[in-house]
Design brief:
Blueprint: H1 3-12, H2 19-43, H3 51-54, H4 60-90, H5 102-106, H6 108-126
Helix pairs in contact: 1-2, 2-6, 4-6
Length: 137
């Protein structure tokens, strides 16, 4: 049973709501979002506009993809550096209803930034082309 299902059941059936459920659901959503972003870059599922790039002739197509990967690497490095600073600044701040600190919750930000940069670097080195989304013809 999911955490939110338990929270709703507790609130409306048992007439009590566990204090930790909302914080845990928020923590899991933060981690899922950041790791999902890194995974999307690795798998090529991240949000992008491909029609404009795929219509370009070579070598412009390759250059556009290279620039996009460089921008993703830059964003990943920013997540790594600034996320690391956030983790450092909040490492001792307690999460009110969980045995964790805010720094532990935010640890996913520099982690996902490093993964994003590494995945984009791999694509840049390999010179991978982009393909259209599943919905495009």
């Amino acid at each position: 049973m999911s955490i939110l299902t338990w929270q709703v059941f507790s609130r409306y059936v048992l007439d009590t709501s566990p204090a930790w459920a909302e914080q845990m659901a928020l923590l899991l959503m933060i981690w899922m979002t950041f790791l999902g972003t890194a995974s999307g870059i690795a798998e090529g599922f991240h949000i992008r506009i491909v029609e404009g790039v795929t219509s370009l002739a070579q070598p412009w197509r390759g250059r556009a993809v290279g620039i996009a990967n460089l921008l993703i690497i830059l964003a990943g490095i920013l997540f790594l550096v600034l996320g690391g600073q956030l983790v450092d600044a909040t490492w001792n701040n307690a999460v009110p209803t969980l045995p964790l600190t805010r720094g532990m919750v935010y640890l996913v930000i520099p982690l996902s930034g490093a993964l994003m940069a590494l995945f984009a670097l791999e694509k840049l080195v390999r010179g991978e082309e982009i393909t259209g989304s599943a919905g495009s013809a």
